[in-house]
């Protein structure tokens, strides 16, 4: 299962399981991930789970900024519309830090075989 772990000074202080298709993030108390911080917009961002078209039963996670005032960032890059999340990505909602963790994400780099010194003719 994927989670969004809230960080304070690099320490996990809260974990939000991403167990639905859509999770709203914002200052509004009705948000799935409610952040009580004036720098966070009422409806700041949303995380969506989408089934991968190539790997049956595997879901990818996408974060969308909803026109927030102070922005949504992935690894310090501003999300303009939407962006795919990868396990280990650092997510910043205004000035609040999170880490996206997906234990079910396929490790494709571990399945590839790279042959050094081979040449193609």
- Counting DSSP E segments of at least 2 residues, the number of strands comes to 11
Shape: globular
Give the SSE string: EEEEEEEEEEE
Largest sheet: 6 strands, antiparallel
Distance between the termini: 44 Å
If strands are numbered along the chain, what order do they take across the biggest sheet?
A: 2-1-11-10-7-8
User: Stretches where pLDDT falls below 50 for ≥5 residues?
Assistant: none
Kindly provide the radius of gyration, computed on alpha-carbon positions and rounded to a whole number of angstroms. 17 Å
* Helix content, binned percent: under 10%
Portion of residues in beta strands equals over 45%
Sheet/helix structural class: mainly beta
Mean pLDDT: 90
* Annotation field: number of helices: 0
């Amino acid at each position: 299962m994927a989670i969004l772990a809230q960080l304070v000074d690099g320490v996990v202080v809260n974990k939000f399981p991403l167990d639905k298709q859509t999770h709203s993030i914002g200052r509004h108390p009705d948000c799935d991930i409610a952040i009580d911080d004036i720098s966070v917009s009422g409806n700041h961002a949303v995380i969506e789970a989408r089934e991968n078209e190539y790997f049956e039963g595997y879901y990818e996670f996408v974060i969308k900024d909803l026109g927030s005032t102070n922005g949504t960032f992935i690894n310090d890059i501003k999300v303009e519309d939407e962006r795919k999340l990868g396990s280990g990505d650092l997510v910043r909602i205004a000035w609040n830090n999170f880490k996206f963790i997906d234990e079910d994400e396929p490790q494709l780099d571990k399945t590839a075989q790279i042959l050094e010194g081979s040449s193609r003719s």
